C-alpha cells in the first residue's frame, strides 16, 4: 500500500472514532437532560403520596328480591324444601341456597354480609357470640346410627356403639366385616352423640388417632358411602335420610325409634338443633320475612313432613308472636344468643 493511501485510511479511522464518541456524548447528554426534566416536573399520580388512591370499585348492591343462605350441610335439604314452598307463592322473589360451607363458614359469611342468612347445626361459639350475630333454632333432627341395607342388625345399644368405635366389634353376626364410617373431629352429629353417650368422646378421639374406620368430611360423602359400602355404619341425620328417601337403614338406639314423639319426650336422646344466623343489627328484611314463614303453620308443616321436629320461635325474639297453630306440643328452645338448583320457581341449590 502506498504511503498516501495508508495515511488517508488512518485519517478516516480517526474521523470515524471521533464521530462515534461525539454521538455517544450527545446521547448521554440528551438522556441526562430528560432525567432532569422529569425530576423537575410533577410526580406521576401513582408516586405522589399527597394524591389519595382511587376508590375501590364497589360491588353492585344486592337486589332487594334476592335472599342468599349458606352454611352447614345438615341444613341444606330442609332449607331447600322450605325455600321452594316459600317462593312458590311469591314468584317475584329469588332464594339462593349455596353449597355447604360448614357452620363456621355460615357465621363468617353472615358477618361479612356475603349472605343474608347463615345455617348452623351447632351452638354459637363464644367468639362468634361476641361478633354481633343472632342464632335462631327452628328445627330439631335425630342423629342416628345408619347402616347399609346389608347390615344384619336393626338396633344398637350404648355398649354396641362403644364397641364399634373402639374396634372391639369387627364382624357382624353373619360374619361380614364391619366398615366404620366416621366424620372429622367437631362434626355436629358426633357432638350430639357425646351429649347422650359421654364415654364415646374419648373412644372416638382414639379411633381417629388410630385411623380406625374410613374418614369422611361431609354429609354427601357419608350418605354415598352408606349406600354403596356393604357392612357400613356411620352417624347420620334422620332428616337427611327421610327427605331424600335414601336407601339406607336407620338403626334403633336402646330400643327406641328416632321418630318425632321419641325425640320430643327424650326417650330417643340423640339429636341436634338446626338454626338460622342473622346479624343482630339491621338484618335483611327478606331474611326476616323468610324466617317468619318458617315459623308459620305452613312452614312447620313442611318441617314435620320432611322428617324433622319443628321448634317454636325463641321466646325473646322478634318472631315470638308466631306459632305453628294446632299440632303436637312444641319443644322448649333456647333464646337466641347474640354474637352464635336454580329452578324456574326462583330457588337455587348448590350442594356440598
Description:
Residues 314-352 are annotated as: Disordered. Keywords: Membrane, Signal, Transmembrane, Transmembrane helix. Residues 341-352 have a biased composition (Acidic residues). Helix 5 packs parallel to helix 7 (199-209). Strand 1 (66-71), helix 2 and strand 2 form a beta-alpha-beta unit. With 352 residues, this protein is of the alpha/beta class. It has helices at 3-40, 76-88, 102-111, 126-129, 158-166, 188-196, 199-209, 219-228, 238-243, 260-265, 285-294, 297-305, and strands at residues 66-71, 94-97, 117-120, 133-147, 155-156, 179-183, 214-216, 232-237, 249-250, 252-253, 271-279, 309-310, 347-349. It has two domains: 1-53; 63-151 and 217-352, Periplasmic binding protein-like II (D-Maltodextrin-Binding Protein, domain 2), CATH 3.40.190.10. 38% of the residues lie in helices and 18% in strands. Strands 1, 2, 3, 4, 6, 7, 8, 9, 11, 12 and 13 form an eleven-stranded mixed sheet that branches. Strands 5-10 form a two-stranded parallel sheet.
Amino acid at each position: 500500500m502506498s504511503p498516501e493511501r495508508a495515511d488517508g485510511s488512518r485519517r478516516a479511522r480517526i474521523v470515524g472514532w471521533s464521530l462515534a464518541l461525539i454521538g455517544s456524548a450527545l446521547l448521554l447528554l440528551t438522556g441526562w437532560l430528560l432525567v432532569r426534566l422529569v425530576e423537575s416536573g410533577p410526580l406521576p399520580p401513582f408516586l405522589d403520596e399527597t394524591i389519595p388512591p382511587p376508590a375501590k370499585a364497589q360491588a353492585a348492591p344486592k337486589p332487594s328480591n334476592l335472599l342468599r343462605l349458606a352454611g352447614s350441610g345438615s341444613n341444606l335439604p330442609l332449607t331447600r324444601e322450605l325455600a321452594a314452598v316459600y317462593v312458590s307463592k311469591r314468584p317475584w322473589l329469588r332464594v339462593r341456597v349455596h353449597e355447604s360451607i360448614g357452620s363456621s363458614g355460615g357465621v363468617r359469611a353472615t358477618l361479612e354480609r356475603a349472605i343474608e342468612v347463615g345455617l348452623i347445626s351447632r351452638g354459637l361459639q363464644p367468639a362468634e357470640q361476641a361478633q354481633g350475630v343472632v342464632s335462631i333454632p327452628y328445627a330439631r333432627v335425630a342423629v342416628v346410627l345408619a347402616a347399609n341395607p346389608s347390615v344384619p342388625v336393626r338396633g344398637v345399644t350404648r355398649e354396641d356403639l362403644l364397641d364399634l368405635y373402639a374396634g372391639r366389634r369387627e364382624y357382624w353376626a353373619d360374619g361380614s366385616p364391619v366398615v366404620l364410617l366416621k366424620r372429622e373431629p367437631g362434626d355436629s352429629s358426633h357432638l350430639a352423640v357425646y351429649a347422650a353417650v359421654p364415654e364415646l368422646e374419648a373412644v372416638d378421639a382414639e379411633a381417629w388417632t388410630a385411623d380406625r374406620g374410613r374418614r369422611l368430611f361431609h354429609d354427601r360423602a357419608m350418605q354415598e358411602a352408606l349406600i354403596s359400602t356393604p357392612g357400613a355404619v356411620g352417624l347420620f341425620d334422620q332428616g337427611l335420610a327421610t327427605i331424600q328417601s335414601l336407601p339406607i337403614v336407620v338403626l334403633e338406639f336402646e330400643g327406641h325409634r328416632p321418630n318425632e314423639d321419641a325425640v320430643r319426650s327424650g326417650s330417643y336422646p340423640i339429636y341436634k338443633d338446626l338454626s338460622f344466623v342473622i346479624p343482630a343489627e339491621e338484618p335483611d328484611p327478606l331474611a326476616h320475612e323468610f324466617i317468619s314463614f318458617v315459623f308459620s303453620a305452613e312452614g312447620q308443616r313442611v318441617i314435620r313432613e320432611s322428617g324433622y321436629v319443628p321448634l317454636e320461635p325463641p321466646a325473646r325474639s322478634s318472631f315470638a308472636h308466631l306459632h305453628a297453630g294446632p299440632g303436637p306440643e312444641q319443644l322448649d328452645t333456647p333464646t337466641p344468643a347474640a354474637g352464635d338448583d336454580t329452578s324456574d320457581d326462583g330457588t337455587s341449590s348448590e350442594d356440598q
